[in-house]
Amino acid sequence: MTLGRWCLLVALKSSGKAMVPSELSDDLAVTRANISNLLNALEQTGRIRRNFDPANRRRILVRLTPEGDELISKVWPVYEQTIVQHVGNKLSREEQDQLKVLLNKLY
Question: Residues in the chain with pLDDT < 70?
Answer without folding.
Answer: 107
